[in-house]
Amino acid sequence: MFNVVLFEPEIPSNTGNIGRTCVVTGSRLHLIGPLGFSLGDDMLRRAGLGYWHSLDVTTYAGWEEFLAQNGLGETDERLHLLTKKARKTYTQATYADGDFLVFGKESTGLPEELLARAASRCERIPMLPDATTLKDAGEWAARVGREQSHEALRQDVCGNFVDPDDYRISALNLSNSAAIVLYEALRQTNFQGM
Question: N or C end of the chain: smaller count of CB under 10 Å?
Fold first, then answer.
């Protein structure tokens, strides 16, 4: 069984879709708070359709509680931190039964401090740069701003992160990203029981 972990998810329909994917793949869903919605939210249940009652889901107050309750350390080999800031792609990773696929919140992803502490555990889904994909990339950059200093990434001696100045706004939808990586993990383990 694989574990899909959502760090502070904000959009209930994404979590509902991911929950549905977890049910049909026999995966467990972990939700790390604070959540941007209530678990009773209609959007969450609508996206999860009739699957939500069959979902194996656990919620946690925060990252430390999640690690403690699952017997994990920050650099545990069972953790796979998905971020657009990693050099290693998800297809270069090796997945095993029981691994945890960790995805960040829709607006900002996983905290950079967490990524820097576990640099060897970071993976990304390849995507084209903003200049290639967004007609208004400059306007997006000005609107979003680049308030984060990326200092944690510059200090990473593991070399696991891309150039911090290659900041990207565009990214896949969270539920699509979770499905892509989960199915690669399932493929690597020969779709056991499917």
Answer: C
Q: Report the C-alpha gap between 115 and 83 in whole angstroms.
A: 8
Q: Give residue 149's pLDDT.
A: 47
Q: In this predicted structure, what is the pLDDT of residue 48?
A: 61
Size (the chain), residues:
194
Q: Assess contact for 110 and 144: CB atoms under 8 A.
A: no
> Strand ranges (DSSP E) for 25-115?
28-32, 57-60, 79-82, 100-103
Say what the pLDDT of residue 38 is: 85
**Residues forming a β-bridge with 146:** none
How far is CA 97 from each of CA 36, 66, 92, 172, rounded to the nearest angstrom?
Answer: 29, 18, 17, 25
Which of 181, 182, 148 lies closest to 167 in space, CA to CA?
Answer: 148
> How many whole angstroms separate alpha carbon 40 and alpha carbon 156?
40
CA-based R_g, the chain, Å? 17
pLDDT by 10-residue block (mean), the chain, 194 residues: 97 92 97 91 68 91 98 95 89 97 93 89 83 61 52 47 54 91 97 90
